[in-house]
Structures are given as C-alpha cells and as structure tokens.
C-alpha cells in the first residue's frame, strides 16, 4: 500500500492513499509526485506496471503494463510529459508518455542494475504559498528546521 502522513509521525495523521493490491500490484517500489498535475505515480515490480492517482488516491489510471522494457521497474521520476524509470532486468533507464505509456524509449543502458533516478529542474520545486517559519531565525530550532 501507499500511505501518507505528516512529518510529526503521529498515527492519527497516517492514512492509506492507495491499496496497490486493488490494481494487481504487491511491490510498489518506485514513487514520485507530479506537483503540477497533483498526481502520485508508482511502479510495481511484481506486476511490472506503472500507475497514477490523484494525491487522495482517486482517479486511478494504469499507465503501462507488460511492456518488454518494463520487466522489473525499480525507481521512477517524472518531467514534463514523460515518466522515466530504471529497470533491473534490462539494466536500463527508460521513458514513456506519462498519460498513456506510449512512445517507450531506452534512454541509457547500464552495466549494473540502475537504482534511483532523479530529474533536477527548477519547475519541479513546489512553491510555498506562505512564508515558512523556518525562514525566520531558523524557526527557533537549534539545528535543522524541518517543521513550521
């Protein structure tokens, strides 16, 4: 399952967002968020598939399943209109259309199993709507200010 919680770790703030078994999955091992579309994307290594829902778990859509280049997905990233994933069986970095799984392309083949994947771009950083309390006097924290 995929869950959400607040950073304080309190059980009352923890909830299941997606029961992956409902969609034939069991090993959701890659997870990323599309901040613009407000969607969660995940890979499932048991069913060899990629899925998406809205943040609250509604509007599920299976992007791709059973493709020859989706044989054991591990990590996932998203940028603009594409999803990128690493695949352990083919030792590759692969991309496809994020809405319908079309236009699958191998971006890079590796010698060993590729693990994590990240896309770094300013547009992928969510903008805060208010001033975060950590900006002022480090939120009165002695070390790292993580919560506001």
Question: Notable features of this structure?
Answer:
148 residues, four-stranded antiparallel sheet, mainly beta, globular, single chain
Set out the fold topology.
Layout (H helix, E strand, L loop, with lengths): L1 E3 L10 E4 L9 E7 L4 E6 L4 E6 L6 E5 L7 E7 L2 E6 L4 E6 L7 E5 L39
Antiparallel strand pairs: 1-2, 3-4, 4-5, 5-6, 7-8, 8-9, 9-10
How would you characterize this protein structure?
The chain is 0% helix and 37% strand. Strand 3 and strand 4 form a beta hairpin. It is built from no helices and ten strands. The strands form three sheets. A four-stranded antiparallel sheet has the order 3-4-5-6, with no helix packed on it. Strands 7-8-9-10 form a four-stranded antiparallel sheet, with no helix packed on it. By secondary structure, it is mainly β. It is globular.
Briefly, what is this?
The protein is mainly beta. It has strands at 2-4, 15-18, 28-34, 39-44, 49-54, 61-65, 73-79, 82-87, 92-97, 105-109.
Ranges with pLDDT <50 over ≥5 residues?
A: none
What is the overall number of helices?
Answer: 0
Query: Level of helix content?
Result: under 10%
Largest sheet: 4 strands, antiparallel
Give the N-terminus to C-terminus distance in angstroms. Answer: 28 Å
Strand order of the largest sheet: 3-4-5-6
> What Rg is obtained from the alpha carbons, in whole angstroms?
17 Å
Helix and strand element order: EEEEEEEEEE
Instruction: Find the structural class using helix and strand composition.
Output: mainly beta
The tally of strands reads 10
Q: Average the pLDDT over all residues and give the rounded result.
A: 88
Described by the principal axes of the CA atoms, the overall outline is globular
Report the portion of residues in β strands: 35-45%
């Amino acid at each position: 399952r995929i869950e959400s919680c607040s950073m304080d770790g309190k059980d009352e703030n923890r909830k299941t967002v997606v029961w992956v078994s409902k969609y034939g999955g069991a090993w959701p091992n890659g997870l990323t968020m599309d901040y613009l579309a407000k969607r969660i994307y995940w890979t499932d290594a048991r069913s060899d598939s990629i899925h998406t829902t809205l943040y609250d778990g509604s509007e599920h859509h299976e992007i791709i399943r059973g493709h020859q280049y989706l044989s054991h997905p591990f990590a996932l990233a998203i940028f603009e209109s594409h999803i990128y994933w690493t695949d352990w069986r083919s030792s590759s970095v692969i991309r496809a259309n994020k809405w319908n799984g079309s236009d699958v392309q191998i971006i890079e083949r590796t010698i060993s199993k590729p693990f994590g994947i990240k896309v770094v771009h300013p547009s992928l950083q969510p903008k805060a709507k208010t001033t975060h309390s950590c900006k002022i006097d480090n939120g009165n924290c002695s070390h790292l200010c993580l919560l506001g």
